[in-house]
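As agreed, record copied across for absentees:
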Amino acid sequence: MSGTGPSGGSAVTLAQITSADWSLMLDRTAGGAPGSGIGQVVQSLADVGQCIAIILGTMPGEDPWRPTFGCDLTQFIDRPLPAAMPAIVAAVATAIETWEPRVKVLKVTAVAGGAAAPATLTVSVTWQIDLGTNAPPSGTIGALSPQTTVVTL
């Protein structure tokens, strides 16, 4: 579920949450005006994608209860791009593997901002739900398909 409640616009009630994996929607995930995520939830794969975005947008030390949580991409500021990009990709993959055990990272790409937004970094993570040693259930739709989360910092 993304952006609106099951009825098309009102807040979601607890009875309407159908997934074991869910969390409150962040405004930056909602993609609308400030406050558009209030009262909404993300479930299933959208929840996992939002969690990946949270990992990438959090600096270690920002969460006082988990001081090592996050991904320190600021260490690459002012480094030459050819040297920084492989290190950024490695840092992103390591942070996601550390903090999001539900997924297997398939691919990470990082692109520095262009002329319109030169001070930005766009990170794209392609991931798949990690079922571990369990055989995929028959009829599983979407869970085994690669998903992509894009975060612009």
About this structure: Confidence is low (pLDDT under 50) at residues 1-8. The chain is about 25% helix and 20% strand. The longest strand covers residues 103-112. Residues 73 and 88 are 7 Å apart (CA to CA).
